């Protein structure tokens, strides 16, 4: 079981599809790492699915670092990538490099940076400092308010050309891969052919070099929103509800715990306890 590296991911283009899932805690990371998953992304979707915030741009650096540490502690094989939060890029990305270093210290092997106007210098600084960067274009949730909301991007010629250009810029800056979120499958096919770095799609069709999903979506754990591009492989919400109702019923009927789940005391010791 050898650790998957950034180089391994770069080499996968046109060879074998890349798989990536988000993860935010130790227990799930341990499970994911024992499967065939290539990349574990500590996504800023943490904001929505774990913290209950409306916008990913409101997650803090401290929250992202804490969850990155938890995931990294459990991960021995997969590549751990941490999403840099929007807050790292305020004031023209002044904190970007320092924060990127914090993610590597927390155990990530690379960081993901969502495209924003003027992101190039900070990505350049990160890569120059040997911090591998995964780019992210299309529907970038941190700046969705500037894109007209959570809408499919790149549907018009102008918007498609802009995204092709962004993908090429990220490649030229030295990003090792790029996430394509919510764009037409024809456009992701063009971008995948146009760049030498792997493309990893979410709501971008099948022609990407890899696919990513939010773990809680794939497992049916996030009931608030279910985007069109999500496939629920297992509806764990209903399984969990069944289990918890089983616990409630058994406690109420005094059927849990049984002797099997209880500790017992030596009779001699018990006899010596004075009873009123
Ligand atoms: O945070 C996240 O979940 C992501 C994926 C959608 C790629 O960035």
Name its key features.
single chain; 276 residues; alpha/beta; TIM Barrel; 2 domains; 8 strands; 39% helix; binds 3-methyl-2-oxobutanoic acid
Describe this structure in words.
The chain is of the alpha/beta class. It folds into 2 domains: 6-235, Phosphoenolpyruvate-binding domains (TIM Barrel), CATH 3.20.20.60; 239-271, no CATH class. It contains 12 helices and 8 strands. It has helices spanning 6-11, 26-33, 46-49, 61-74, 90-93, 96-105, 120-128, 157-173, 185-194, 215-218, 236-252, 267-271; strands at residues 18-22, 39-42, 79-83, 110-114, 133-138, 177-181, 199-202, 210-213. It has an 8-stranded parallel beta barrel with strand order 1-2-3-4-5-6-7-8, surrounded by 6 helices. Helix 2 (26-33) crosses helix 4. The termini are far apart. Bound molecules: 3-methyl-2-oxobutanoic acid (KIV). 3-methyl-2-oxobutanoic acid binds at residues 22, 43-45, 83, 179, 181, 202, 212, 214.
List the helices and strands and how they pair.
Blueprint lengths: L5 H6 L6 E5 L3 H8 L5 E4 L3 H4 L11 H14 L4 E5 L6 H4 L2 H10 L4 E5 L5 H9 L4 E6 L18 H17 L3 E5 L3 H10 L4 E4 L7 E4 L1 H4 L17 H17 L14 H5 L5
Parallel strand pairs: 1-2, 1-8, 2-3, 3-4, 4-5, 5-6, 6-7, 7-8
The structure holds 3-methyl-2-oxobutanoic acid.
Summary of the model, kept short:
With 276 residues, this protein is an alpha/beta fold.
* Percentage of residues in strands: 5-15%
**N to C succession of SSEs:** HEHEHHEHHEHEHEHEEHHH
| Helical proportion, percent range | 25-40%
Category from helices, strands and their pairing? alpha/beta
**CATH fold topology of the largest domain:** TIM Barrel
Count every beta strand, where a strand is a DSSP E run of 2 or more residues. Answer: 8
């Amino acid at each position: 079981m050898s650790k998957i590296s950034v180089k391994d991911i770069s080499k996968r283009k046109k060879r074998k599809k890349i798989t990536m899932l988000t993860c935010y805690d130790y227990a799930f990371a341990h499970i994911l790492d024992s499967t065939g998953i290539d990349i574990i992304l500590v996504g800023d979707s943490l904001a929505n699915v774990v913290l209950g915030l409306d916008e990913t741009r409101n997650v803090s650096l401290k929250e992202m670092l804490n969850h990155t540490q938890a995931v990294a502690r459990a991960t021995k094989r997969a590549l751990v990538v941490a999403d840099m939060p929007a807050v790292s890029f305020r004031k023209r990305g002044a904190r970007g490099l320092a924060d990127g270093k914090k993610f590597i210290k927390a155990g990530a092997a690379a960081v993901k940076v969502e495209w924003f106007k003027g992101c190039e210098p900070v990505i350049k600084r990160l890569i120059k400092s040997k911090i591998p960067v995964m780019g992210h274009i299309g529907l970038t949730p941190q700046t969705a308010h500037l894109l007209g909301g959570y809408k499919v991007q790149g549907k018009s010629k102008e918007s498609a050309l802009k995204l092709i250009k962004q993908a090429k810029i990220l490649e030229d800056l030295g990003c090792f891969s790029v996430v394509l979120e919510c764009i037409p499958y024809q456009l992701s096919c063009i971008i995948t052919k146009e760049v030498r770095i792997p493309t990893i799609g979410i709501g971008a069709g099948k022609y990407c070099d890899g696919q990513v999903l939010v773990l809680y979506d794939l497992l049916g754990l996030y009931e608030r929103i279910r985007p069109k591009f999500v496939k629920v492989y297992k509806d764990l919400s209903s399984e969990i509800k069944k289990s918890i109702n089983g616990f409630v019923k058994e406690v109420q009927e005094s059927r849990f715990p049984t002797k099997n789940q209880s500790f017992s005391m030596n009779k001699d010791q018990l006899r010596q306890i004075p009873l009123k």
